[in-house]
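Amidohydrolase family protein structure dump, as promised
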Amino acid sequence: MHSLLFKNARIFDGTSADCAEGQWLRVADGRIQEISAQPLQAPEGTRVIDVAGRTLMPGLIDAHVHAFASDVAVARIEAVGEAYRTAHAVRMLGHALDCGFTTVRDIGGGNYSLYKAAADGLFRAPHFHYAGKILSMTGGHGDMRQIEQTPRYAPACACVEANMFSVMADGVDECLKQAREQLRQGAHCIKLMGSGGVASPTDPIWMNQYREDEIRAIVGECEARRSYAAAHCHPASAVRRCVEYGVRAIEHGTLIDAETAAFVAARGAYIVPTMVIIHALVEMGRELGFPAQSQEKVELVAQQAISGLDLMRSAGVKVVFGTDLLGSTYTQQCREFTLRGQVFTPLELLRQATSTAAEMMLMQGQIGCVQVGAQADLIVVDGDPLRDIGLLAADGRKLGCVVRGGEVIRSDR
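structure tokens r here:
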């Protein structure tokens, strides 16, 4: 394994606003071994990187990606085939790594094959966590069939209705089976569709989805595996009921209200808003061929997106960084910092993309932090991101070094 020694570093640890100056940090076997204000010794052959007073901080975490989402239109993603989708994933994940994201959470569509390819170094990528296929009720947000498509009944076809991103599961027994199936295939968490969504053709945004017994069954399976459940939710009603029934992480939460934000905060649940995909689709959706019915829905959601962030902040909700980018919009990943910067301070944003994300993923002390024993996922920022979050919104141009699992991905020293 790689042995590294950083010297003269200003360290942001992922949590504290107080950054220690003149620090030394030693990496071996992919983990942080020592941090000291005094010079450290390292074995012969250790690579020494002079940080020169710049900020050394945890690698970033994007907790809402879809690596195989090669287009803004789901029908076209399905049609292009596995090879094309994989090529897009390689390109997208490589870009994320260059931007300083050393961990991503694929929250719908990602699988063990892509995870293993990334882990084995077959292509350049962050650490890849995945939820497998999303659980959706028939006619829910994960059901991408057009209204005119007829169902395939069991007597004629015994297969499960599924697509690239979702599998249909109705009733407690099917929810249990499909949650267990995704966990069997290595899913790090399970995502369910708790409300209507933008990309699906037949369900309104305001629609609450899944019954209480179905949601609780999915949550119970996750807890039995020492994992957790996440839920796609836009309206406040869906957010509240999913959190009440035990869901740990809410994806989007765009149409939240003050009362629900306070409820989420009191329960200690997390919300992963995704501002950049909303703005990208409002600006470019028509040009990129986003379906007309979906374009109408995203423009509705956009009206409350930023104000929803303000409600979350005021209530003290634990907010996590996520982007949800589709197709060619993947290049806007770092723009999420700029959009959230209208509401949150740089320190709040840094925590969202490091320590709070790690906590939500049940990986506190492992990623999203600079402390002894943690994975050596580190970036060097050319300046002070606690004062200027724009340094992280520059698509990696303001990063002097990116380290993932103790391996130097790139460095200017």
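The chain has 13 helices and 18 strands.
lmk if u need the other ones
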